[in-house]
Amino acid sequence: MARRFFIGGNWKCNGTLKSIEDLLSTLNGADLAKPLPEVVVAPTYVHLAWVKSKLREDFAVAAQNSWIKGSGAYTGEISPEILKDLGIPWVILGHSERRTLCSESSQVVADKTKYALDKGLAVILCVGETLEQREAGKTFDTVAEQLKPVAGALSSWTAVVVAYEPVWAIGTGKVATPEQAQEVHAYIRSWLTDNVSPEVSDTTRLIYGGSVTAKNSAELGSAKDIDGFLVGGASLKPDFVEIIKSAPQA
Ligand SMILES: O=C(CO)COP(=O)(O)O
């Protein structure tokens, strides 16, 4: 079945009013061929509602995280209910920066994913190995360990996109080769067949993240099991438009 190509821009902890205004005018002014891939940008929480109100209507917005439970006495957190109320359709969960810097375990990521989906958000679920894990031959085991609690928690995957982001490729300029990325995407697809269902495996979009640029996106995007990208640094630049343009036409 055809999976619609998906391009996410994770702005991380970046942006000023001026830089975002400039970026919005680049994105909104871009002349893009139809049919468009699905395009979703993730500004910081404080910029989210403003970006949503200014962004072209054929792109959507995502939060970069959400709380594990509903609204209440959780200082500093943002619940899926609040995001839903603001009309935010997507959330990124399990990014390696949160797993590492905020000690989010795979079980916490699974519980957050379930809660966000239950409240009607769609989830970009990130998985990926460190360089140490790759060099120890543990890439597949690491990804399986990250997916397992999610598979245990979810009853439906229709609103999930899985982002494979090898930690060693994030923000390093060291992009996975199309063969390296394809190998792990194929593994994830077979893992989903065996542990969830052939239908989920066939329909779930698997996107790649880690030093994606306008120079490498076309080649990566032509790999069989790569259904899109989660772009960090290059999503803050006009490069992002070129990455969108490089998406394979459906
Ligand atoms: O972490 C990423 C997207 O979530 C990738 O970041 P870079 O594209 O900057 O390597």
Automatic annotation (TrEMBL):
- Tell me which PANTHER family the record gives: TRIOSEPHOSPHATE ISOMERASE
* Record protein name field: Triosephosphate isomerase
Return the similarity comment: Belongs to the triosephosphate isomerase family.
Q: Which organism is it from?
A: Symbiochloris irregularis
InterPro entries hit by this protein: Aldolase_TIM (IPR013785), TIM_sf (IPR035990), TrioseP_Isoase_bac/euk (IPR022896), Triosephosphate_isomerase (IPR000652), Triosephosphate_isomerase_AS (IPR020861)
**GO molecular-function annotation terms?**
triose-phosphate isomerase activity
Q: What pathway is it annotated to?
A: Carbohydrate biosynthesis
Q: Which UniProt keywords apply?
A: Isomerase
Alphabetical GO biological process terms: gluconeogenesis; glyceraldehyde-3-phosphate biosynthetic process; glycerol catabolic process; glycolytic process
Q: Which Pfam families match?
A: TIM (PF00121)
**GO CC annotation terms, alphabetical:** cytosol
Which CDD domains does its entry note?
TIM
The answer to whether the entry has keyword Transmembrane helix is no
What NCBIfam families does the record point to? tim
Q: Show the SUPFAM superfamilies listed in the entry.
A: Triosephosphate isomerase (TIM)
The record describes its quaternary structure and partners as: Homodimer.
HAMAP family assigned:
TIM_B (MF_00147_B)
